[in-house]
Amino acid sequence: MAQRGRRLPRAVRLLILFVGVGVVGILGYRPVSRIPASGVASLPTLTISLPDAQACSSIVISPDGSHAAYVLSANGGKTVHLDGKPLARHSKIRVPWEELRDGCLPQLLPGLFFSPDGRRLAYAVARGKQWAMVVDGKPGTAYDELGAPIFSSKGRRIAYTARTGRRWQVVVDGSEADRSFSAIGAGRGLRGDPTVLDPIFSTDGKHLAYVAITQTTIGFDYYLVKDGQKIGPYTEISDLTFSTNWARYAFRAGIADGKQVIVDTGKAQPAFAALSAPALSADGRHLAYSALNDRRSPVLIRDGKLQSCSGDRRLRTPIFSPDGKQLVTLITGKEGQDGLVRDGVVVAWAGESPRDGIYTVTFSPDSRRLAYLTHEALVVVDEGRQPGIPHDWRFVFSPDSRHLAYTVAVPDGVVPMRDGVPLIAPVEEVNSLTFSPDSVHLLYSIRQKSAGRAQCYPCIDAARGTAFEKIFPDFYFPVPDQYYYYGYTAGQLHRVMTLISAAEEGRERTHIRQMVAQIMAPGVSAIRRRELSQQLTHAQDLVYAGDVLLAAAELASPMAFDDLAATLGGLHEKRAVPMLIRQLAKDDWEWSAARTLGEIGDPRAVPPLLSAMSRKHKPARSMIASALGKLRDRRAVAPLLAYLQESPDDIAQVEIIRALGEIGDPLVVSVLISRLNDPKKIDEEEYVAREIANTLHILTGQSFGEDGTRWQAWQEGSRPTAK
User: What domain count does the chain have?
Assistant: First the structure.
């Protein structure tokens, strides 16, 4: 039996070492310095000190949110840091990375590229006049030019384009492919040169495709290269698309006679004068595209069959629903406006103006809801227009498809909306609308100035978090009840982990939004809206109720605005004054706005109310006079007296006289007594005379009724006996 701890002879140990090295060499093993797995579900908070703002500008967060990388400059060199620790120092790193994509203007890329799982990092470093791609800490071969690196979905493979001299190739996992191409890409740049585009990995990472271009004596030949096999040549290739399982692919190609064809998994379809990009359903079972035939008439082709005329000469790409069962196309009406067609049936028109097109057509994840944008509204098909217009032309469905979020620009800033209801009062900027995985909560970041200094805050629903100078775009959910984000302030980068239960706003705020949503909803009865308005004035969180009402009033219909404004008046919400002053200029809103300004009682409303009174029609003028009376501001006395003489409306005159009594200026007594002694006017306006008598009683304490003679005698000092 061998003794424990006894060392083997030196010769035997050397033999084992040589055998081990030989086996490693035979197997082709190369150690890879990958980033350790983060254990995302238990990520701790992280604080990294940064020396300057330039370092902050180079920060890149991994797609899974587990790591942060950035570049620091010092002593003529640059060092890549990962989570606060230095990785490698280089003379020059390509940060930021400028690249021409899709034939458009150059795009600035961050220069540091993470794999989707966050475990691999790639970037380019200078080698003299050439560039080498550093992957997992190891530099590769140097080339004259490099394209941005592309990782497979699981991060196990990496590919990028590279140029040596005038020849391009694709480098896959460090191995070089065919060097015979003039360019790798699809499409043309601003000067007509082929544009460098990215290779495409399949979902499982087992396949790779790209478009390769070779120069001939008369132009360029385009090929699709899929797993090393060339398909072509064509005079042009663009809009390459694959089904989710990669069993089917399609692209638009040019042929020799100047026409275009759709190539469906290697098979060319009938040629047309012009084509849209092809659309494949996610399961790969259906293919659709628009085309112009030889007579330049627009047609739709679906699964190889010619459909009825699409009517869209702009040849916009059809859109399949996520389940592949519905197809949406756009058509152009006789007047030039856009129409939305779903499975051959027109479901919406953009409007009468040709300029009011349909944009950003989007299905919900479950394919049951369909939304789109026009210049005037966000519309959900079969549900109607949503309040406001998304100011950044974007909106997002929740994962369960039940909720819709977007941001709306209002005069005082920007408001995040959920299901048509504002979440908070207007702020300067709203970014990164993100639903929680269970669709219950909406997360976003806001930017707001306070004391002349801009601050950024993370928010969940209506609850606001800690202030930062900058919050990075994404929120991450390692587990359903937690989320985290990155924020920068005072020279430090923070990773903040938050429990959703600790950040929730509570049931009260949710209930407030639900009541506001009912008030704004079409078809709700006036009685029900009034009941909800009364309930809101007794809410526990009155500050938040004011926030939501302020934003909602900017977006409501005239009927809903009346009840929302009444609630703001009941709350005496002085923050609403600027908004209400703006609404005075709108014919359908001025009555409610004037009433609420009177109830709030802010003296800022006096000049706008006087200005509105000079131009508004009879009903509005009476309400404006009533509001001025409630404000009790003597600046209104002289204008009200002038309007009293000018206005032919008896109702407006009564309200003006009543307002003068509420203001309580004794200078109006003589004017009102003179009015009572004008026989012509009193005969025509008996109830006006009664209101003058009541007002004189309020101002003087005397009771002479409508007898102008007795009032005149009292004024002259004879002091008649009161009735």
Answer: 1
